[in-house]
Design a protein that fits this description.
The chain is of the alpha+beta class. It is built from two helices and eight strands, in the order βαββββαβββ. The strands form three sheets. The chain has a four-stranded antiparallel sheet with strand order 2-5-1-6, covered by helices on one side. Strands 3-4 form a two-stranded antiparallel ribbon. Strands 7-8 form a two-stranded antiparallel ribbon.
Length: about 110
Amino acid sequence: MKIIRAIIREERVPYVQKALLAVQIPGMTCSPVRGRGSQRGIHLQFRGGVLTIDLIPKVLVEIVIRDDQEAVVIEKIITAARTGKEGDGRIFVLPVTEAHRVRTTEVEV
């Protein structure tokens, strides 16, 4: 099993949700996060001066999937979340050794 952690723009979350539902991936966890990447924040012209916003709001989407679903899920996230502009986000893939279901005490390996 793998966990996909995607940091994407807030406004792209519904598109990612819909794209994942199309490939039968209904479960996901979304958390609001703030950060900055290679663009080092954004700079806005405000009342004659430059206002720098260092930490930009994003959404962290986490999805636990089987190993064979990895390529499809990553491709769907990229297609749905991409705007072509700087700050579209990042995707990280991590291994999951096991998962425990609280209600039934079932263990998935």
